């Protein structure tokens, strides 16, 4: 079912309807009375091939608000105005659309569109929060030109983006819908950096690169063009993810790096053309202040003192580069945080603080140590999104790293831009 509320963006929903029909979906359109002031009944009936009504007092013999709600596999409301969001939150049933929302057991996807001040209003933000808590999938609006000369967050997401979210919700649980990332460019980092001490030794970490390569494989399966920046990832790890040798998978490019500085330079360069950036690599926090030209020798029984300097924060640098305007519009940046809790805070508390501090859109938080995270076949993660200056938990997932990757990518796309 495609619900259409009364906003000027209703014309975009005609394009969404055509996309749905072209991909084999049967669609019943339920506009509000106000929506018909923008796009007429004849248009909806011609594009859907189904009768269109707005009132529970039409086609009474069908008991339309019950039948449509029961038969739907998915209910999409686009545009979802501030009024419809408020009605849905309050459980009002003043017309066929809102009555159907109360009777359906199908997943519900809402794509808001309204003026910026309406979207930022405390009442609207609270309505969205409550709906999301109830399991309603509410996309964030796009940012850009609104009605008249105004500009800001409040635009209806493009029909293709809403369609991708529809495909994901109709896909098998945990799997990326075919074509979910069609035409998108995804940049993924994987592995662990090594900071050389001398020609044979380095400082490193336990990351195998399995989670990052699984993210790259999931993006590839969803139709994206993928660049994987692999920091010391073994070939067998690539093969486990179905990526084979570098360059062997269509739509995939693998770039090898070793140190944090090499990773930073490569990521910043490639992120300038990426729609989604996933920083899954484990980056060393420090590197030796100097590199010995020859192998360091033992000095009797004395210990060895190393001077370390801090490595750059690559995730924060990626966010800064986007803010400077040198990235595609709507770019989404996803970070990973391998955390351990202590007496001062939990894993989730540390991860949420890191998300807000670094300015990324999403952070995948996972607890490491004691056989969890690094080098294992499975992972348990919590996905956190930045929303209006706070960290919002999107959900939790436990399973294979392939399953976790598919789940994370689908939530990143269907949750909409968080900025």
UniProtKB/TrEMBL annotation:
Residue positions binding CTP: 285, 295, 312-315, 336, 354, 358
SUPFAM superfamilies referenced in this protein's UniProt entry, alphabetically: CoaB-like, Homo-oligomeric flavin-containing Cys decarboxylases, HFCD
Residue ranges occupied by any DNA/pantothenate metabolism flavoprotein C-terminal domain in the UniProt entry: 181-413
Pathway note: Cofactor biosynthesis; coenzyme A biosynthesis; CoA from (R)-pantothenate: step 2/5; Cofactor biosynthesis; coenzyme A biosynthesis; CoA from (R)-pantothenate: step 3/5
Domain Flavoprotein: 2-169
Region of interest: Phosphopantothenoylcysteine decarboxylase: 1-185
Gene3D superfamilies xref list: CoaB-like (3.40.50.10300), Flavin prenyltransferase-like (3.40.50.1950)
GO molecular function, one term: FMN binding
Function of the protein: Catalyzes two steps in the biosynthesis of coenzyme A. In the first step cysteine is conjugated to 4'-phosphopantothenate to form 4-phosphopantothenoylcysteine, in the latter compound is decarboxylated to form 4'-phosphopantotheine. Catalyzes two sequential steps in the biosynthesis of coenzyme A. In the first step cysteine is conjugated to 4'-phosphopantothenate to form 4-phosphopantothenoylcysteine. In the second step the latter compound is decarboxylated to form 4'-phosphopantotheine.
Protein name stated in the entry: Coenzyme A biosynthesis bifunctional protein CoaBC
Organism: Sediminivirga luteola
Lineage, top ranks: Bacteria, Bacillati, Actinomycetota, Actinomycetes, Micrococcales
Primary gene name: coaBC
